[in-house]
Amino acid sequence: MALSQSAVEKHMMRALEACKASIANEPVPVRRARKLGGLSAAAFLLLMLGTGAGWHPANWLRDLGADYVAPVGQIREVTLADNSQLVLDADTAIRVDFSHGQRRIEVQRGAVFFHVSHTGQPFVVETEGGRTEVLGTQFEVRQQAGGAQVTVLSGRVGVTAGAGQAQQVLTANQQVEYHDGQAGRVHGVDSQNSLAWRQGWLNYYEVPLSQVVDDLARYYPGRIILLDRQLGARKVSGSFPGNDPLAALDALGAVTGFQRHTLFGRVTLLR
C-alpha cells in the first residue's frame, strides 16, 4: 500500500528521533564519530521510503510554485480563465501567467495538450528555454531532457528552440523536437495516435525502450529503474494501457528479454 506524504513525514520524525536517542547514549568521542553517519543513514532510508511511495522531494518543492499539477498516475483536465482547455498528462506541473497582454504557460515538467480559445491575445508555451507560439490550434508540448517535443493535432504553431533561433511553423500532423537550444527536423506524425494518452493509451512505434519507461513512470506510484543503458536504447513498438504500467513492462520484457523485479511493491528494477 502506498504511503501518503504525511505518513512519510511521520516515519521521518520517528527515525530521526530514534537516531538521536541512539547517538545520545554513546560516549562523547564515539558519539561525534557516529552522529554524521547515523543521520546520513536515516536520511537515506527515509528518502528511499518516500520516493518508493511516489513522493518526490524535488518535485514537491517545485510544485509550490505551480498553478496546476497532475499527480503520478492521474490525468487532469483544466479550464483556464480564457476558456482554453488543457489536459495534463500524469506527473505534470505548469504555471499560468495571464498579464501584460499575453497568455503565458510554463511547462515545469510532464506533457500538456492544449485546445486554445481565440481571444486576440498571444498564447505562448515555454519549457526548457524554448517557446511555442499558438497561431490557432490544438497541440501538445511534452518536456524532455534539455528540451521538448511539440505535436500539432490541428491548426498551426510556431516553435522557437531558443533565443536567437528561427521559428519553425508546424501544421496538423507534424512534430518537432528541440534540445539545448537546437531544433530538429519537422516531420509528419499520426497525431491522434501520438496523443492517445488522453484516452488512457500509450502508443509507440520504433522508439527507445528508455522513452517508454519514462512515460510509464508517470503512471507508476514509485520508481522504475532501467539498469542497462544498451537495453534502454533498443527500439520497441506497441500499444499499452497507462493504468497498468507493470503489465506493459511485462509485455515489453517478453519481447526484449529483460527481467522485472519489483521490491516492496514500489521500486521496480529492469535488467
Describe this structure in words.
- The chain is built from seven helices and 18 strands.
- With 271 residues, it is of the alpha+beta class.
- The chain folds into three domains: 5-55; 61-193, Sandwich (Jelly Rolls), CATH 2.60.120; 200-270, Phage tail protein beta-alpha-beta fold, CATH 3.55.50.
- Strands 1, 2, 3, 4, 5, 6, 7, 8, 9, 10, 11, 12 and 13 form a 13-stranded mixed beta sheet that branches.
- A hairpin with a 7-residue loop joins strand 9 and strand 10.
- Helix 1 (5-24) runs antiparallel to helix 2 (28-52).
- The radius of gyration is 22 Å and the shape is globular.
Structure in a nutshell:
With 271 residues, the protein is α+β, with helices and mostly antiparallel strands. The chain has three domains: 5-55; 61-193, Sandwich (Jelly Rolls); 200-270, Phage tail protein beta-alpha-beta fold. The protein contains seven helices and 18 strands.
